[in-house]
Structures are given as structure tokens and as C-alpha cells.
Amino acid sequence: MRKAARLLIHGRVQGVYFRQGTREQARRRGISGWVRNLPDGSVEALLEGEELDLREMIEWCSHGPPGARVDEVKVEWLQPTGELSDFHIRYDAY
Question: Is the pTM higher than 0.90?
Fold first, then answer.
């Protein structure tokens, strides 16, 4: 069953290849969506895919790549839209 989840990841998660690692892990699992840094030092991700794959992805995000220190992952389950076709890193201007 396809689901979607929005993650807010807090800790030392910027400058440690967290976004790149998230993209690699998501693509391996066939998850679509995006990941981006937020101005407060956290990382936000929007994931859409099969529930088991999303749960594995959330588990990966709870520790991240080597060098990261994850203090908290907030998960908000959403209805999938089907509008996301790939997984990419967003570089939003604030």
C-alpha cells in the first residue's frame, strides 16, 4: 500500500552528506519525493512509496550517514498524491 510521510530530522544533520545519503537510500527503495535543509539546521523530507519501504527509510533517517547525529525524527503520515516521480534534493532559497 502506497503511503506518504513528511519527516523533520533534528540534530547534526547538515554538512554531513545527510541529503545525499537520503537521496541514495530513497532511490534504492523506489521512494519518490525530496529532501532539503531548513534554516534552523534541521532537514525536512517528503517521502512517497510502499509502507514497508517508508518505514525502512524512516529507520535509516533515525541515524543517517556516518558523521551525523540525529536527536529526533518527527514523522507525519500523509495521503500519497502520486505527483512525485523521482527523489531529488531541493535547494530552496530562504
Answer: yes
Q: Is 65 helix (H, G, I), strand (E, B) or coil?
A: coil
Helix H or strand E encompassing 34:
strand 32-37
The per-residue pLDDT for 92 is 83
- Angstrom distance (rounded) from CA 49 to CA 55: 10
Q: Phi, psi (5° rounding) for residue 77?
A: -80, 135
Which residue, chain included where needed, has cell 535547494?
91
How far from chain centre, in Å, is Cα 62?
10
Residues with catalytic roles: 19, 37
Hey, what's the cell of 32?
519518490
CB-CB neighbours of 60 under 10 Å: 17
Which domains, ranges and CATH numbers included, belong to the chain?
2-81 (3.30.70.100)
Q: How confident is the model at residue 76 (pLDDT cuts 50, 70, 90)?
A: very high
